[in-house]
Design goal:
mainly alpha; 63% helix; Hypothetical protein af1432; 8 helices; globular
Length: 169
Amino acid sequence: MLADILDDDYPMVRELSGFSKQEYQHARRVSRLAANCAKVVGANEQVCAAAGFYYRIGILDGEPLPESGMRIAQNCCFPESVIRIISEYNGERELPTTIESAIVHMVDGLVKKFEVFDSRTMSSEWNQDMVIYQTLNEFSASGIYDRSGLGMNMFLKIREYLVKEDTIL
């Protein structure tokens, strides 16, 4: 089921693509990176890929995004693990409660930051690394992942993977 809901022919994938190419590209980036981060720490790659893709799906119905996203995901009969992560969008309603949710939150926040900066600013590897370190360290220091089960060793592995990743965008 998780692979099916990510297929380009799946109706919600097509709907998101038709809604906004920018939002669709963001979703694909988060999906890919979240799955790779999950692999690095032994978390569920498929859940991270699907939840990463649909993390901001609430944008289709508007604010509040967690509730809108949950409603859409439930109507599409998504797996409970994906619905749960969508419900924890950005820690607005509830903080991440699983390692997979923490990974998706981390990656989404990082991709959002990269999308804000222009290509000239991010052309330097040093700038990219600093944005990654600063963003993830701020997330970690905020305590947002304290209930997720994401240990410090996992966090460090994910952060190092993302620093070494060639294509955040």
